[in-house]
Amino acid sequence: MARPREFNVDQALDAALDVFWAKGYEATSLCDLLDAMDLSKSSLYDTFGSKHELYLKAIDRYVGERTEGHERAFLSAPSGRQAIEGAFRQIIDDATGKAPYQGCFAMNCAMERAQSDDEAAERVKQAFKRYQRNYEIVIRRAQAAGEIPASKDARALARFLTSSAHGLHVTAKANPDCEVLEDIVSTILEALD
User: In 3D, which of 135, 117, 130, 128 has the Cα closest to residue 81?
Assistant: First the structure.
């Protein structure tokens, strides 16, 4: 008869996610994971499988749990235009805050692993589709309210905003200068006019 788990699986997975987010997949050692998760090697393997399987579960956790709170706020903003502006301003606030800025975990995964890891690439691709769909929803809402011209192609604009958000995350990691980031966001938002 198997012994019951003596740890919280969700907390352990969150700890692994934090390590992968801070260090990336390649730089994260098994010891890093065991220390952060406070697990034995056998508990990690029995529960999560390999380091790679744990990484994939961390991506799923990020997209499924951590993204949902942002998504709810984004989709429930008072207006579509406010949702878009708020999302970009949030990136600036996060990047210029007190904590070291780690960027978007899904974007980090794309940059590090998408070329060499088909399973991670597929998860990231699905996350990016979700982000794009959400932008398209709020763009159409803003168009219906007259905040964005109806003549704009909502899908193309959603793709542009998704790509721009990813680029802003990367820029903010390399140069979290508020003035630089504000200039970029101002230019991005002009595309809504």
Answer: 135
